[in-house]
Specification:
homodimer, mainly alpha, Multidrug-efflux Transporter Regulator, Chain: A, Domain 2, 2 strands, 3% strand, DNA-binding transcriptional MerR regulator (chains A, B), MerR_fam (chains A, B), DNA binding (chains A, B), MerR-type_HTH_dom (chains A, B), DNA-bd_dom_put_sf (chains A, B)
């Protein structure tokens, strides 16, 4: 298909598609003449993925580029694939002092100990978690951490279902894309469901 | 304290503090002379909250403004307070066709029926959830929805703990701020824990 049809199929305006191409988020089409290119179903699919990561995942253009690089990287074991997909994902960072970081790591290690989780200090995910704990303390809402074990148990249940489902996708490329999409859009899914649940619990507990 | 000390106490550069003031994210100090103002502990606290919402919550400047407006709004019942805090929060939106929306609402209503949840079609939270479902279908990763009930059960467990903890904060202002901070930073906490859990589950299932 030509560019105009790619735009219709994907619902993305032509100018936006060209912008994504300049940013390296979409591979070039197959040139059929010096200034005309042909696109396929893979381009439509990739465009929809870019839109979902930007609009639902809330990622920046640069972060989408990193995620797509993770998807396109060849890898070996399923564990490595999942790790690679995860390390390609942007993590929240927060400036913290040594004292704050030590306090956060203490809380994380205690929680991980109770759940039988391994903690790799320095890994982006652990640093990101430590940043969230420090932010909660900095804004004076440490009480949220009284729920840390409840949150971790919920995360564990969801992660078990995620990994099992992703591993069933089969082909390496599908597993990587599934891991990335499932992680980013899964966050959005969980956040929306949590807000919906807040309304239900609040109605039950406080409504007259 | 003067502006320089406010900057030291909060860890936010003076130029950034002035930018936040222009954007209405920080109330003015008490004028002690035509071009000098005095700031208090409430300013330090508010600055740390703005930083956390921007950096950990990943909100835009405009969205932080809406959240702060929700925090400063006077309200009545705890249920109303929580609703207000939630409606002040930005929700992901996704362009969907009528057919897609109907399909998503069908999935949401079936899930809600199984959990005994009320669904208010048109509420920002339900629309946001419908958007996530449509995005998953658009990118060809509908399989994530096979986990919808697992996600909803996890969200329910966390929401129950959230609402119970927030209600204990007592004063109206504290409950509103707690609800907002708990919702935004709670999303970040859950996302980080879910990624940490992914690594544990993957190691257990696939590592050699």
């Amino acid at each position: 298909m030509r560019m105009a049809e790619l735009s219709r199929e994907s619902g993305v305006p032509v100018a936006t598609i060209k912008y994504y191409q300049r940013e390296g988020l979409l591979p070039p089409g197959e040139l059929t003449s010096p200034n005309q290119a042909r696109y396929g179903a893979a381009h439509v699919r990739r465009l929809k993925l870019v839109r979902a990561l930007l609009e639902i995942g809330g990622l920046s253009i640069a972060a989408v580029g990193e995620v797509l690089a993770a998807i396109d990287e060849p890898a070996t074991s399923t564990h490595d694939i999942l790790g690679l997909a995860q390390h390609g994902l942007p993590a929240a960072t927060q400036e913290v002092t040594d004292e704050e970081r030590a306090w956060a790591m203490g809380r994380i290690e205690a929680m991980a100990g109770r759940r039988g989780w391994e903690v790799h200090a320095g890994s982006p995910v652990v640093e990101s978690l430590a940043g969230v704990l420090c932010a909660l303390r900095q804004v004076g809402h440490e009480w949220v951490l009284d729920e840390l074990d409840t949150y971790a148990a919920a995360a564990d249940t969801v992660a078990e279902a995620d990994v099992t489902a992703v591993a069933k996708l089969g082909a390496t490329e599908a597993v990587v894309e599934g891991a990335v999409v499932g992680t980013v859009l899964g966050d959005a899914l969980l956040a929306a469901l949590r807000r919906m649940a807040h309304a239900q619990v609040s109605r039950r507990q406080f409504s007259v």
